[in-house]
Write a structure and sequence with these properties.
It is a single chain. The protein is α/β, with parallel strands linked by helices and 683 residues long. It has 21 helices and 30 strands. The chain has an 8-stranded mixed sheet with strand order 12-11-8-6-7-14-15-23, with helices on both faces. It has a 7-stranded mixed sheet with strand order 5-4-17-16-18-19-20, sandwiched between helices. Strands 21-22-24-25 form a 4-stranded antiparallel sheet. Helix 7 (125-141) packs across helix 8 (160-171) and helix 9 (184-194) crosses helix 10. The termini are far apart. The protein binds adenosine-5'-monophosphate-propyl ester.
């Protein structure tokens, strides 16, 4: 196997990250410590490298196993690690059935519709169990889904989404949830990549006060998948309002089926959970990388579930009696790990909110928290910034009380952190800033909420059993406290680590291991550090501060997008000859894409053309990928070998006078011309 890095790495986001000063510590409140799951500092000893990998038995023991494993970690095919080998389990059993004896009548999922006058649905564990069974029976007996089959789920934030995921898990089928905001075309690409013949969707859902037609995307998805060589045989459509079809698009005979109608046939049908091996995949989650093609990150059943249960217990401090609300979307990894699998594996009550946080006003989240008695709250810096801007004093009006709050997905500015702490948390809650990725399954760096003081803007040290290291370009360790930034890596494997990229194991090796692998022939995990793709610095106290991506990935409002994907979409517009996307700092969204294009000869820039480019990107990918600005430039800054220097464009987008070294450019004069275009575009 060729061990060449995926591509030459050029700093983008990391370069423009804010470099704020060292902050003061905040201590966790005594009331929190008194009830916390992780209060014994010697736990970190038990999870030290000397005790690796056996330490992770403690996480696996949080689960029910049909058959206990014989080998904790098998390293015989690096870096394709295998955890808990020999073990057998079922994720749906672990998240639902096993809680019935004690928690049958406890709420598993609080579904909060966006329209405030619609009642909240408090789904008990008993009801969740029944609905998962019925839908699993339907998937198996009507749609022919079997163990190992892939099922694409393109659904909004409704309780039927976790029901569908858990039904797949019950059958040992591999779900691939596509974020509901993604286009039909994006859904098709993901379905085609994994060969999923069944698409589960919903007719409509509420977003910012509008009932959006969602089924229309399924029609596009089937059509686009066909062009890619995949025949989607069945489209299973949940109704947002059971008994009423809320989409304008007609049903296609023999292909489209209303789930709520079919379920009448499956009432009270139960399905024995299928026993799967710990190493059998639980799901795929497509995410962006350096190329235009999203990668299907594959997660295992045993290792993944053990890891999210363990981290949810110790770092989210979830007890079964807690009401936990993570305001992310289940269509992203945060929702998989910390709305569905982690909280439900621990028997907690988890909130699923359909709509936008600021609808109908910025008090909405705090009203929901008050009404449901939410005591653990989890969201992203983008949502915090938006809520602060729209209603800086709103939280004070409500009688909600959090013991614990999380921030995830992007760096949080210390000032924003303090508003979260003082106003949202009323100074009563502990905050964890959790750094991790789709690929990592669960948290990698954060403070332990009852053990470590918080430091605004820093994620914290490695979590139990995770040993981070920062390497320089040549693979030398950068010591903590040196103030120097480098490549954030993890020394050791862990159970939540992705297994591979679906259908492309070479890309898995190239992307995450090639750059810092010490010996490609070694079977010792110590020779295979995991490269995360983020730039970071480690302070003297061991806390890690994330600077941003070092590859062609940008995090827009916490949504991960590949610059190549956006560029490819822009190139669909006939007049566009070249496209380059860079990350520009934005007050609310943290980072936003800005697009530079060069037109084919004979075409002139116009507002109409820019609008068409933006619309194409929204249609091809999603409205979340829309660039903040489109600049039509005479030429791209290029190296002599013809490579576009995005670094220079990023400097211009971020208003930096000094754009860095331009001596390697074949056309340095273009830099000034681009600067003027950007300046006049902003004026
Ligand atoms: O750049 C890091 C940023 O989000 C990337 C991972 O994105 P995704 O796979 O979509 O997963 C998001 C939810 C875990 C990382 O490579 N990131 C994630 N958490 C943080 C962060 N940046 C700064 N601080 C964080 N806490």
């Amino acid at each position: 196997m060729a061990l060449e890095p995926e591509r030459e790495i050029e700093p983008t986001e990391a370069e423009i990250a804010v470099h704020w000063k060292e902050e003061e510590y905040y201590q966790p409140p005594a009331s929190f410590i008194a009830q916390a799951n992780l209060t014994d500092p010697s736990m970190y000893e038990r999870f030290s490298l000397e005790n690796f990998p056996e330490c992770f038995k403690a996480y696996a023991d949080l689960l029910d196993w049909y058959k206990y494993w014989h080998t904790t970690l098998d390293t015989s095919h690096p870096p394709f690690w295998r955890w808990f080998v020999g073990g057998q389990l079922n994720a749906s059993h672990n998240c639902v059935d096993r809680h019935l004896p004690r928690y049958r009548n406890k709420t598993a999922i609080h579904f909060v519709p966006e329209p405030e006058d619609e009642p909240i649905h408090h789904m008990t564990y008993q009801e969740l169990w029944m609905r998962v069974n019925e839908f699993a029976a339907l998937l198996r007996d009507f749609a022919g889904v079997q163990k190992g089959d892939r099922v694409t789920i393109h659904m909004p934030m409704v309780a039927e989404l976790p029901v569908a995921m858990l039904a797949c898990a019950r059958l040992g089928a591999i779900h691939s949830v596509v974020f509901g905001g993604f286009s039909g075309k994006a859904c098709a690409e993901r379905a085609a990549d994994c060969g999923s013949k069944v698409l589960v969707t919903m007719d409509a859902y509420w977003r910012s006060g509008t009932l959006l037609d969602h089924k229309e995307k399924a029609d596009i998805a089937v059509e686009e998948a066909r062009k890619l060589g995949l025949q989607i045989e069945k489209v299973l459509i949940w109704q947002r309002y059971p008994g009423r079809y809320s989409s304008r698009t007609p049903l296609v005979e023999g292909r489209d089926f209303i789930v709520n109608d079919l379920l009448r046939e499956y009432r009270h049908r139960t399905v024995e959970p299928v026993r799967v091996h710990a190493e059998d995949p639980l799901f795929l989650m497509y995410t962006s990388g350096s190329t235009g093609k999203p990668k299907g990150v594959q997660h295992s059943t045993g290792g993944y579930l053990a890891y999210v249960a363990g981290t949810a217990k110790y770092y989210q401090d979830i007890h079964p009696e807690d009401v936990y609300w993570c305001m992310a979307d289940i269509g992203w990894i945060t929702g998989h790990s910390y709305i569905v699998y982690g909280p439900l594996a621990l028997g907690a009550s988890t909130v699923v909110y359909e709509g936008t946080p600021t609808h109908p006003d910025a008090g909405r989240p705090w009203r929901i928290a008050e009404e449901l008695g939410v005591n653990i709250f989890h969201t992203s810096p983008t949502a915090i910034r938006a809520l602060r801007k729209a209603g800086p004093d709103e939280p004070k009006k409500y009688n909600h009380h959090f013991k614990h709050m999380t921030t995830v997905g992007e760096p949080i500015e210390p000032d924003v952190w303090r508003w979260y702490y003082q106003v949202v948390g009323k100074g009563e809650a502990v905050i964890v800033d959790t750094w991790w990725q789709t690929e990592t399954g669960g948290f990698l760096c954060t403070t332990a909420p009852a053990l470590h003081p918080m430091k605004p803007g820093s994620a914290g040290p490695g979590v139990l059993g995770i040993h981070p290291v920062i390497y320089d370009e040549d693979g030398h360790e950068i010591p903590a406290g040196s103030g120097r930034a480098g490549y954030l890596c993890i020394r050791n494997p862990w159970p939540g680590q992705m297994q591979t990229i679906w259908g492309d194991p070479d890309r898995y090796v190239r992307t995450y291991f090639a750059k810092f692998c010490k010996d490609p022939n070694s079977r010792d995990w110590r020779d295979w550090p995991y490269m995360a793709g983020d730039g970071a610095v480690q302070a003297a106290d061991g806390y890690i501060r994330i600077l941003g991506r070092i590859d062609d990935v940008i995090n827009v409002a916490g949504h991960r997008l590949g610059t190549k994907e956006i560029e490819n979409a822009a190139l669909q517009v006939q007049e566009v000859a070249e496209a380059a996307v860079v990350a520009a700092r934005d007050e609310i969204k943290g980072i936003m894409p800005e697009l530079y294009v060069v037109l084919h000869p004979g075409h002139q820039p116009s507002e109409e053309l820019k609008r068409r480019i933006i619309d194409t990107i929204a249609r091809e990918i999603s409205p979340i990928a829309k660039p903040r600005n489109v600049y039509v430039v005479p030429d791209m800054p290029k190296t002599r070998s013809g490579k576009i220097m995005r670094r220079i464009l990023a400097a211009i987008s971020n208003g930096r006078e000094d754009v860095g070294d331009v001596t390697t450019l074949s056309n340095p004069e273009v830099v000034q011309a681009i600067k003027e275009i950007v300046k006049s575009g902003r004026a």
